[in-house]
Design brief:
The chain is an all-alpha fold. It contains six helices and no strands. Helix 1 crosses helix 2, helix 4 packs across helix 6 and helix 5 crosses helix 6.
């Protein structure tokens, strides 16, 4: 997070002055830490996440963009991709993907709901 902030502003202010200002504000972050973070290779999780994101997007498109996280997880497991459900949830959230919500019970009827306290309609059949 701090590294991204420095990346956005280093051309205007420079790395060392930004780090000095951050330290004055109580957030100690050495310039050497910034350069080390920039030169570090991506972690195994980050590399796997990138691969899984591609597979999730492909599966999402293949299923008409309506799979939720649980269904996506089951689809991936069915294709032999061993992944945790919480990982699928996290990556779908990062990608901005979500399943289609089911209808609420109130939305299934085409007849309008009567106002509370309104009189009942007349009984055309003549029941008691």
């Amino acid at each position: 997070m701090i590294v991204d902030f420095i990346d956005r502003h280093k051309k205007k202010f420079g790395v060392e002055p930004i780090c000095a200002q951050l330290e004055a504000l109580g957030c100690k972050f050495a310039p050497s830490s910034y350069y080390e973070a920039r030169s570090r290779r991506p972690s195994a999780r980050a590399l796997r996440d990138e691969d899984l994101k591609k597979q999730i997007i492909a599966e999402y498109e293949e299923n008409y963009r309506c799979c939720g996280a649980r269904t996506m997880w089951l689809q991936l497991r069915g294709k032999g991709i061993d992944v945790a459900r919480c990982t699928v949830e996290r990556l779908m959230k990062v990608l901005g993907l979500q399943g289609v919500a089911g209808r609420s019970p109130a939305g299934r009827s085409s007849a309008p709901r009567p106002e509370p306290g309104a009189p009942w309609a007349k009984d055309p059949v003549g029941r008691n």
